[in-house]
Amino acid sequence: MKILVLNAGSSSQKSCLYEITGETIPSIAPQALWFAKVDWTHHQGFAEIEVKTVAGGMLQKEVSASSRSAVISDLLDTLTQGSTKVINDFSEIDVVGHRIVHGGRDYRQSVIITEEVKQAISQLSSLAPAHNPANLEGIEAIEQVLGSVKQVAVFDTAFHSQIPDAAAIYPGSYDWVEQGIRRYGFHGISHQYCAQRAASILGKDLNEVRLITCHLGNGCSLAAIQNGHSIDTTMGFTPLDGLMMGSRSGAVDPGILIHLLRQPGYTVEKLDNLLNKESGLLGISGESGDVRGVMQAISQGKERAQLAWDIYVHRLRSYIGAMLASLGGLDALVFTAGVGENSAEIRQAACESFAFLGLKLDLEKNIRKPVDMDIATPDSKVRVLVIHTQEDWAIGCECWRLLQH
Ligand code: ADP
Predict the structure, then answer these.
(1) pTM
(2) For ligand 1, which residues put their CB under 6 angstroms from it?
């Protein structure tokens, strides 16, 4: 079975073509036959396309970005043409899977895309304006190029859909509950993949382990996982809640927002931009939203960079503590995504606070670029895992699973 995965973000899109040949799904992600990335941020009006294949084919080009569907069409052509050709014809593709950021309250599992599902994704755009419209455009572009191929929606909110009301409902007006204003949580595909992989590394049934997964990338969120489900998470109604992030603030006193909006000339757009693009590590350090940039600035003695680091670590520890309380115990703390997988310093700083639980990090293993590995000491009471998140593969697995029925 050949599965095409489209993982569309607001400014970039990753795509993969997987092939599953056996009767069962491999437990470890195979290498994609074809991998492509589109970046819309390079030049206004243009998109940068980068394609690699398992056989070593490579292509990099800039295309006119008149519409997302035109760019996707150009991208798909690289599957059947030139040095990146991996299939003869689009009819070889059995199914296309899409990451859909917001599935609201109704979509708690992956589904085959129908007109009704498309309408729901469109209606949920008001809750995820930077993502759901892009996801929908991806679905429509595939319809144009591949015709009636089966398409599957895999929702980033689905894994969190069983969070109990006490953790999901904000203590504002009860009208909010009726309007659907509640904690949805995000990065669900990554948290779920990491939970399953963690259980397999630990050699245990997923239903038997209590986990905290720390997805620390540009966006950051934690999930508390029990009986195979997320029971609490740090992102909320939007991906702005919770931890300090690269350029997003995370949770702040809502009174600050009221205070700012009362200042003459202050606008909602300005506040939106500030909280999403000019805050977090970037806002505090004034140097970079990238942990590496912040560390470099610290080594040059820049005090604001040190402050940004200290706040990031403080908040990470506090929220791990909050997830711990929701779980009432912990079998493994899992680190994933750009920062979680690569920053030994952040992992060490986060773990130090939990030594009182008997959590002991093996400092040697921690700095050895661990991938899908347990980095706790043998006598640690809590395991510490570093897992390379594989969202695209997780979407591919959902497609495979749905097509078996
Ligand atoms: P996204 O959330 O956009 O999917 P990633 O998961 O790829 O992002 O994470 C990107 C972030 O990972 C970068 O902004 C950077 O802060 C961090 N990162 C990547 N490599 C390293 C590294 N070696 N050390 C520390 N941080 C890193």
Answers:
(1) 0.94
(2) 217-219, 246, 290-292, 337-339, 342-343
